[in-house]
Amino acid sequence: MSSVRIQEFLSSPYLHKHPVHDSLLFYYLRRLMDKPKETLPAGRQVVMSGIRPTGFLHLGNYFGAVKNYVRMQEEFECFFMVADLHSLTTHPDTKELKENVHRVLSENIACGLDPDKAALYCQSHVHETAELYLYLNMMAYKGELEKTVTFKEKARLHPDNVNAGLLTYPVLQTADIILHRAFYVPVGKDQEQHLEMARNFANRFNHRYGEVFPEPQAFNYGNELVKVPSLDGAGKMSKSENQFATLYLSDDDELIRKKVMKAKTDAGPASADAVKPDYIENIFLLMKLVSTPETVNQFEADYNKCNIRYGDMKKQLGEDMVKFITPIREKAIAIRHDHKYLREVMEKGAEKARKSAKTTMELVRQAIGLNYY
Ligand code: TYM
Questions:
Q1: Do 193 and 74 share a structural domain?
Q2: Which atom of ligand 1 is nearest to the CA of 83?
Q3: 187 CA to centre of ligand 1 in angstroms
Q4: Which range marks the domain in which residue 23 is found?
Q5: What is the rounded distance in angstroms from the CA atom of residue 230 to the CA atom of residue 248?
Q6: What is the pLDDT of residue 242?
């Protein structure tokens, strides 16, 4: 309905028969008329994602997230962030924080992220995040937050530190994303529920105060979101748990070979074309990430003919992992020690992110009605 039609309707004699209904109707129509004009950023579609500085980056972070960051920076307006505020929900001791932030930045850049193409910044350098988090917290309900899988898991692991920041973790993540009115969010499978919550919170804001935000989507170029499994067949690779079953981008060649050789296997299939147990499927999955299709096909054929030798397969996988990880590790070490460069990257990224955040927050305050003059 156009503004003129709404104006006509509001002055119609049919209104005012039921004062309560009238005032509600009045309120919603006013909201429609006051809706901010420019709601989506002009130009290229916006992308946003983040990584917590809680440990060493691993193969899961690369194939679940960073690989897409590198591809997306060529096509979209990208904001990638080190989620240092999120890390405080579980890691209150900040002795290693600075080093971890430097490491995450260096490893992102070593993987191919270009700070001249994408904004690469620290969450705590963009204060608007905290303001948006505050508004969104008033639309997030205790019941839904308590049901979040990551909250329940973390509360179970650290019963002595179930803080409000942990409970509202998905609200802060939503603020990170919608602060740039991002549409695509490249993440791994473990972030699916957080993204669903981000869509709910963004929609709730739009319904209550007027259309400001697009609905953010978890993104992997139309494919299933990635989950890189751990080498022991139990769960996924992780920054701080399960360290011997996780391949880190900082592992040296010997450690990589050792970890791969320890991956769980068995005596081999008992019949041709047998279904693979999960832990064997995982080794094939890891091989598909770093080895050539010919290598994978050869081992698939061996498996199906029951003459696979897992020792040979793991040796090959170890070598292919070394080939994949070594250049990233070496580049990251060189960058990590260049503090002047890292500072410039953070400053430039934060400046870009703050500019985008400022525009969004003006729309947000106007939509909520926090503009008094
Ligand atoms: P974090 O730091 O746990 O992980 C960073 C990214 O790596 C992905 N990932 C994996 N992908 C596949 N297989 C795995 N084994 C694996 N492990 C981790 C994660 O899905 C993620 O994409 N809450 C977020 C950080 C965050 C964020 C954001 C993300 C804060 N604000 C805004 C997106 C948008 C987290 O803890 O990621």
A1: yes
A2: 30
A3: 6
A4: 3-34
A5: 11
A6: 81
